[in-house]
Amino acid sequence: MAKIHPLSDVQSQNIGESTTIWQYCVVLKDAIIGNHCNINCQVFIENDVKIGNFVTIKPGVQIWDGVTLEDHVFIGPNVTFTNDLIPRSKQYPEVFERTTIQKGASIGANATIIAGNTIGEYALIGAGSVVTKDIPPFTVWFGNPAKQKGTIDEKGIITYL
């Protein structure tokens, strides 16, 4: 059974077992959240969002329509996702861009992930980075724009270029 703080607005019935959703979160009705996730305080999750199992989302994150987080993903505090490459007030695209964060990937605090990109399995995005293109699996990226700085294995051991 999921643990949902009473000060959150969780409209979705698709919340997995042993998932915890802390206070001041909003989860819209069509969102899907897997098992054993930890959704920290002040997180907003839109409708067309899929979150796998064992995912951690730190405070201050908004997960917009079109974003998929696979199993064992870590999203640091205040990470920013986008889903519209040409945003205009009260004008919406027919379809929002799709962004996928693959299994085991980690995104550091305050990173920005531009819509339509895939971050590969176990990749690591450094804090404050701006991701403007697809990121290959098992690589380390940081900067603005983010550039590859090394490789990483499943255990988190980094080899710098």
Structure description:
The protein has 161 residues and is mainly β. It has one domain: UDP N-Acetylglucosamine Acyltransferase, domain 1 (3 Solenoid). It has no helices and 22 strands. The protein has a 10-stranded mixed beta sheet with strand order 1-3-6-9-12-15-18-20-21-22, with no helix packed on it. The mean pLDDT is 98.
Please give the structural blueprint.
Elements: E1 3-4, E2 9-10, E3 20-21, E4 26-27, E5 32-33, E6 38-39, E7 44-45, E8 50-51, E9 56-57, E10 62-63, E11 67-69, E12 74-75, E13 80-81, E14 99-101, E15 106-107, E16 112-113, E17 118-119, E18 124-125, E19 130-131, E20 139-142, E21 147-152, E22 158-160
Parallel strand pairs: 1-3, 2-4, 3-6, 4-7, 5-8, 6-9, 7-10, 8-11, 9-12, 11-14, 12-15, 13-16, 14-17, 15-18, 16-19, 18-20
Antiparallel strand pairs: 20-21, 21-22
